[in-house]
Amino acid sequence: MSKRYLIAVIAAILILFSAKVYAYAPKAPNIKGNVLNAGLSGYKQINLHRLAKKGYKAIVINFWATWCPPCRAELPLLNKEYEIYKNKGILFIGVNVNVTNAGVKSFVKGFKLEYPIIHASYSEIMGYGGVNFIPQTFFINNRGRIIFHWQGALNGEILNTVLNKIISLEK
After folding, report:
1. What is the pTM of this model?
2. How confident is the prediction along the chain (171 residues), in pLDDT tens digits per residue?
């Protein structure tokens, strides 16, 4: 057996082993709070751990801020996709990370966001790794596990690909 072949086989084994190690899906930290757009969303309060037990195929959590241009740019997409996916067992939750929620209610009302929006506490933000970069989106399966994480603004192709894969896996 040649040295190159042996190195390739060892590399392949290490890659396969690593894939299994990284396939672990951590439990999503809880996020809870009063919904800032209760009139539009139909939700008064959010408690992620309770919602994860209610039969949703997935929950999409999007961390954002009013002062963030990429966040503002993706809000209409998230709103549109929420309307499409809410009847397919997918819930979207917007988690605002502004220092205070002053002004967030009027901002959300101006954008006519229909998916529930809550304000995150410092400990909730830290539970998701500090969310030092926004926007960030976490996809949580029906067992309350984070199965995909996206940093940066989403586009329709990424969002649809991930959600369609989740739906096909949860059947």
Report:
1. 0.82
2. 565 654 555 544 544 444 433 356 788 899 899 999 999 999 999 988 888 778 888 999 999 999 999 999 999 999 999 999 998 889 999 999 988 888 888 899 899 999 999 998 888 888 888 888 899 999 998 888 898 999 999 999 999 998 988 888 766
Helix (H) or strand (E) holding 39: helix 38-41
Closest-CA residue to 22 (of 167, 161, 151, 148): 148
Neighbours of 88 (CB within 10 A): 13
3-state secondary structure of 47: strand
- In whole angstroms, give the CA distance from residue 10 to residue 33: 49
Partner residues linked to 138 by β-bridges: 61, 149
What residues form DSSP beta bridges with 149? 138
The Cβ-side half-sphere exposure at 30, using a 13 Å CA radius, reads 9
Long-range pairs, 18-27, Cβ under 8 A, ≥24: 25/141, 25/145, 25/146, 25/147, 26/145, 26/146, 27/144, 27/145, 27/146
In angstroms, the first-to-last Cα distance of the chain is 45
